[in-house]
Amino acid sequence: MSSKQSPPPQPSLSTLDEIRAARLEKVQQLKTLGINPYAYRWESTHHTAELQEKFAELPNGEEVDLEVAIAGRILARRVFGKLAFFNLQDQTGTIQLYLDKKKITAEMEDVPNAFNHLKQLTDIGDIIGVKGTIKRTEKGELSIYVSRYVMLTKSLLPLPDKWHGLTDTEKRYRQRYVDLIVNPTVRETFRLRAKITSAIRRYLEQQDFIEIETPVFNTQAGGADARPFITYHNTLDMELYLRIATELHLKRLIVGGFDRVFELGRIFRNEGVSTRHNPEFTSIEVYQAYADYNDMMQLTENIITSVAQEVLDTLEITYQGEAIDLSSPWRRVTMQELVQEKTGLDFSKFQTLEEAKTAAQKVGIEGLEECPSIGKILNEAFEQKCEETLIQPTFVLDYPVEISPLAKPHRHQQGLVERFELFIAGRETANSFSELTDPVDQRERLEKQALLKAAGDLEAQEVDEDFLTALEYGMPPTGGMGMGIDRLVMLLTDCASIRDAIAFPLLKNESNVIKSFDYDGEKQILRVEFKSGSVYKYHDLPKTVYQELKNAPSVGQYFNSQIREKYGHDQEL
Question: How far apart are CA 551 and CA 532, in angstroms?
Answer without folding.
Answer: 23
